[in-house]
Design a protein that fits this description.
Blueprint: H1 3-6, H2 24-45, H3 47-65
Helix pairs in contact: 2-3
Length: about 70
């Protein structure tokens, strides 16, 4: 979500997505696959663990998009 801002940062510009070493489309597909597998595995382990993982994922999205700018 912060790839463009990271590419302008002196330290973060060397990260794989910010430096364009990894294609953003590939990263998004890989993220969707890993997220799906992780959530399925967490549900198999425990519905409570699934809820915790889902909350953690959603909180990270909210933080990246909105909360860190407050």
């Amino acid at each position: 979500l912060d790839r463009e801002q990271d590419s302008l940062h002196p330290e973060k510009k060397n990260r794989p997505l910010a430096s364009k070493k990894i294609d953003p489309g590939f990263a998004l597909v890989l993220t969707c696959i890993l997220l799906t597998l992780s959530l399925v595995a967490s549900y198999i382990l425990s519905p409570y663990f699934f809820a915790l993982c889902t909350f953690y994922f959603l909180f990270n999205l909210l933080y990246s998009k909105f909360l860190k700018h407050i």
